[in-house]
Amino acid sequence: MKRTILILSVWFLFCPARAQADKIYRVSALVADDLFVPAFDGFKKKMAEIGYIEGKNIRYDFNNAKGDRDILAVMAKKIVEGKPDLIVTSSTTATLPIAKLTRGTNLPVVFLTSANPLALVKSYASSGNNLTGVSSSSLDIIEKRMELLKELAPKVERVIFLVVSDATNFEAVRRLTKEAAKRLGLTLVELLADRPEEIRPKLAALIKGRAGDALFYSLNLIPMREEIIRQATLGGILVIGPGEEVVREGALATYASDYSSLGPQGALLVDKILKGARPSDLPIEQPSKLKLIVNLKTAKAIGLTIPKKVLIRADEIIE
User: Fold this and answer.
1) Any residues with CB less than 8 A from the CB of 106 and at least 6 apart, and which?
2) What would the DSSP string read from start to end of 153-184?
3) pLDDT tens sequence across 196-220
4) Whose CB has fewer CB within 10 Å in the chain, the N or C terminal residue?
């Protein structure tokens, strides 16, 4: 009898742990655009480092809407209907439909980047729901980007400002950009469009008419952003964009979160949740790293000499 009790005790002690170790977690991911892929790549790399090996104890279902809102909505619905163990998203735009579809459930959602977490959660201290994640601080550093523009080209007075009314953070972006320009004594030439595709012809007219000497935008979901950068550069207009990817595509510079670092921060949150923590118990994190990136090739193309003080501070210089 004692031997039977001992065997049962050992079984109850070790079998649940064994079952947990043998579990293969299913994690679905949704990113809004190519700009946010580095966050997911950084997330997967960190997950592997802390013991989640793809195909062994975790499987990923990766979805990229490529800037298309309609496709994003379809992907979000399919992901939630698939009932994964956890969902990771990148950008507020990608997170909003997932948050709506999972509202009132215990399906955990971790956003790897969000310019505006308060559109998703109750507070930075506690989400009050099934979400948690990492802020990209994109709204908070709009003024810093505008200051960077002024540093790069002190003589610039008029700035073309791209703003799309159907963008997720439209009102906040517009207000903060206007406030930053006013403080720095810059005149904004606002190009307001209802949808991204309406920007192309309007921008061409502004560039041809030399409506501004610089172009500023903080909107990530612009499918034709490479064309916009090309148009501006050909017109001798410098572009300050919202992330490092746009600088690699030809924008002059940016000051932004390092998305490849945001992913690993999110991985640590996911690890805690898979081990039993509730998303509402995990505070929203701030980005661990911001990067100043300058494209010298673009500077040369528009005839601009980058001040030495900016180059010294730059985390990365593209030549």
Assistant:
1) 130
2) -TT--EEEEEEETTSTTHHHHHHHHHHHHHHT
3) 778 878 888 888 888 999 999 876 5
4) N
